[in-house]
Automatic annotation (TrEMBL):
Pfam families: DUF5360. This is YvaD family protein. InterPro entries: Uncharacterised_YvaD. Signal peptide: none annotated. The lineage of its organism: Bacteria, Bacillati, Bacillota, Bacilli, Bacillales. It comes from the Bacteria. Coiled coil: none annotated. Keywords: Membrane, Transmembrane, Transmembrane helix. The chain crosses the membrane at residues 7-28, 48-67, 74-98, 104-121.
């Protein structure tokens, strides 16, 4: 596992866990909230990402742990985590694009989620013995 992948996964996985803790505690300043944050449907849409984002964090952190232990199962966990990360970013970007809401503060992190897995997934999927960390 390349060091850059490990760092990006840690940023993503810990970032998701922190984001949801901050969200549940209501610690985001109002100026950082997305458009229509008080709209019941927008809030439900945002909350619908919880299972996906938590699964991303669990599979990503598990992959890193398995890699450190020298277990080959790290690669399937990594592929699942990166695939789900891509999906999370894609779904959010699609939503914001359909709404015509181009708030750079929400687009940048979601473009990150959409794009960074694409640099690692091809190598992981074509290698019989993935060794990218």
């Amino acid at each position: 596992m390349k060091k850059s992948l490990k760092v990006l996964m840690l940023i993503t996985d810990i970032g998701f866990l922190l984001y949801w803790m901050i969200t549940f505690l209501g610690l985001l300043p109002k100026e950082m909230l997305y458009k229509d944050y008080t709209n019941e449907i927008a809030v439900a849409w945002n909350m619908s990402f919880i299972p996906l984002d938590i699964l991303i964090s669990v599979t990503g952190l598990t992959s890193i742990l398995l890699y450190r232990r020298g277990e080959r199962l790290w690669a399937p966990f990594c592929i699942v985590s990166l695939s789900l990360t891509f999906c999370s970013g894609l779904q959010a970007i699609a939503f914001w694009a359909i709404r015509g809401d181009f708030d750079i503060g929400w687009w940048i992190p979601n473009l990150f989620l959409l794009l960074y897995p694409l640099f690692y997934l091809p190598g992981l999927m074509k290698s019989e013995k993935p060794s990218l960390f």
